[in-house]
Here is the input.
Amino acid sequence: MSTFALALVLVAALCHALWNLAAKRVGTDGYTFVWCYDVASVVLWAPLAVLALLAAGQGLSPALVLASSLSGVLHIGYQLALQTGYARADLGVVYPVARGVGPVLSMAVAILLLGERPGWVAAVGALVVIGGIVVVATGRSAAGRHGVRAGVTWGAATGVAIAAYTLWDSISVTTLGLPPIAYFVSSCLWQVVLMTPTLLRRHRASVAPVLRSRWREITAVAVLSPLAYILVLEAMRTAPVSLVAPARESSIVVGSLLAWRLFKEPSPGRRLLGAGIVLAGIVLIAR
Here is the structure.
């Protein structure tokens, strides 16, 4: 991986940790909150996406529309699972579990469905990730043992979605050659379109209160989440996903540390140790 690609990924990791802190602050009305920051993301980033398309002499191709629609579906699952986890459990549990499950799941799929045989280092890495998750999951939680179980459950569900969208988005920007910024904004637009019917039926009354009380968090996620992922997609254009994916997971340690400092979550030493073990395992898987 080049120095420039590594810099992109590390900045993305910091942005990712920061927007997750903002999302954690929103404990209720998760569906409405997700819809609001998806709308804000489209509004903020659409002009840049249009400029990028014009500069490249490209338009809205069928491949861009169709590929981003599937990405939108996968990201909706990711966002709602993550927000549910943050509403029911500590960030210090949900975050490392979610970021650790993805690489292990990807390796399992490669073995079972694709017939790949990773080396012993990758196998050890998977075991290390699992060990790190166990360290995190056996600590104390502000919500008690039920909170730990909820954090592991929703963190794992989030990890499944992460593995799915990471694989598909990598194919979209590499194999299909779709422009990252336009692709991401198109995905956000699909998320808004697909979520709006349910919002109007079940959550219409909560839109105004969420906008009034959570505009700071909405803005933070709308700026930092797209920025983080666009930087990752750009890095994927010049570096293999097997290197980009583990490097971006350095956000696990940053997020766990900030969760302790800002939310006073219990067992900070255990959470940081577990997050560090998960990160080490991810690095081994990618070697």
User: Anything to note?
Assistant: Residues 3-286 form one domain.
